[in-house]
Design goal:
This protein has helices at about 15-30, 70-75, 75-90, 105-120, 160-165, 170-185, 200-205, 210-215, 255-265, 280-285, 295-305, 320-330, 360-370, 375-385, 390-405; strands spanning about 1-5, 35, 95, 125-130, 140-145, 150, 195-200, 215-220, 245, 270-275, 290, 310, 335, 350-355. The chain is of the alpha/beta class.
Length: about 400
Amino acid sequence: MKILMVNKFLYPNGGSETYIFKLGEQLVKEGHEVQYFGMEHEGRVVGNRVESYTSKMDFHTGKLQKLLYPFKLIYSTEARKKIRLVLDDFAPDVVHLNNINFQITPSIIYEIRSYEKKRKKQIKIVFTAHDYQWVCPNHMMMIPSTGELCFACQGGKFGACSKNRCIHNSRVKSMLGTIEAQYYKWRKTYDMVDVIICPSEFMKKQLDTNPLLAKKTVMMHNFLPTTEQDNADELHADLPEKYVLYFGRFSEEKGVKTLLEVCRNLPDIPFVFAGTGPLEEEVSKLSNIRNMGFVRGKALQNLIAGAEFSLYPSEWYENCPFSVMETQLYGTPMIASNLGGTPELLQDGMTGELFEAGNGKLLQEKITKLWTSPELCRKYKENCKDIKFDTIEEYCDKIVRKVYT
């Protein structure tokens, strides 16, 4: 089987890239042909035979041609032309879409269907929903300026995005996001997709509010992260003998601001933070936090496995976070917020504990409880050994049997 994997970023950037790289690798191991289409970038690590990609775009910097900027973000004739070259050469049986909005745009869906008619070759279009983009123009179901969780766009009423400046707190960008959402709703573009994979029941519930999407959604939790190691150095840091770990992005939506206040209130507990982000300076200021910076591979595995427990205080609707799965995989309990798909992954009272997102007082109580109850931590650690998620092999088998065919 020939699979064309489509994602706007073709270099390591986040969870969706981890997903396409690992799934692509496994598909190749099982004898399938896999090529990739997305945006050109100096860090690109996968590609296609004809070396056809869209031009590099950065929605955050504003360094785009001013006149073409709005049109490229909503509908990309370039993306259609570039993917056409790949389709003509590769002739895929399946096109697996991932994050495509803005840099690639859903316009490529029309090109795939046009190619299908021209070549009289049936193509299965699959989409994995890594975020809420198809029901929320800013993809987070949150008003960034206030941090307020939001369902205003449910049912296709996208005007709230412009009203609340939901995209980068910019009136212009938010209006473009609203126009894009309304345009593809009006054209019923997403109805041309055959299957939508939702990595959590929560995600499925949100997408099912759109009647066009509801008949296409299937829920499949992400595969368990691999235990294979990359070439990263092992961790040789002078760490506390006993510590509490946070790893991930240092940002407000990840709950780090709330967590920092809790850390200030618990000066006798040593915390280790691993990651980067806009709150990095604040993280480094606290004397009871050891900031390790960005850590990966075996070094990260060792850091997770060595912690008493890990924290995941996210304050937005996470989908199916690899971090929650990874922590339990390495036998470490977790205290996590109760939003989005996280409660589907963490067994409350068995492999860790959930708390109300944004409730610093409750988070502080949970941390103190586990820190002063080594027997409870040992119980949770033992229970982590029984945690069950799909391996990449099992996930790939399900994809091929139940989704691609």
